[in-house]
């Protein structure tokens, strides 16, 4: 399912226009991104948690040359699915 398929499904299930469903999806994504970027988390019951995480600096190996190299610390977004979501996706 791609973005347009999701918009179509949300519009059909909520009996709203595709334009309204697209605005809703855009705002949902914007709110989640903004909250995670400022360091807060977004927890959606039965779905999961979006949050900002930090990775410490570490030493890695260049796969081409084999030389050790320093990988700087970084921050990145993280999604952790809820146990309900995990159970639904299981075989």
UniProtKB/TrEMBL annotation:
Keywords: DNA condensation, DNA-binding. Gene3D superfamilies: IHF-like DNA-binding proteins. The keyword Metal-binding does not apply. It holds the Pfam family Bac_DNA_binding. One of its GO terms (molecular function) is DNA binding. GO terms for biological process: chromosome condensation. The keyword Nuclease does not apply. CDD domains: HU. Belongs to the bacterial histone-like protein family. PANTHER family: DNA-BINDING PROTEIN HU (PTHR33175), DNA-BINDING PROTEIN HU-BETA (PTHR33175:SF3). This is DNA-binding protein. It comes from Malikia granosa.
């Amino acid at each position: 399912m791609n973005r347009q398929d999701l918009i179509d499904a949300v519009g059909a299930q909520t009996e709203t226009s595709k334009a309204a469903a697209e605005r809703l999806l855009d705002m949902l994504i914007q709110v989640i991104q903004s909250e995670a970027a400022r360091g807060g988390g977004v927890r959606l019951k039965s779905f999961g948690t979006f949050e900002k995480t930090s990775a410490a600096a570490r030493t890695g190996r260049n796969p081409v040359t084999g030389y050790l190299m320093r990988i700087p610390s970084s921050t990145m977004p993280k999604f952790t699915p809820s146990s309900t979501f995990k159970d639904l996706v299981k075989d």
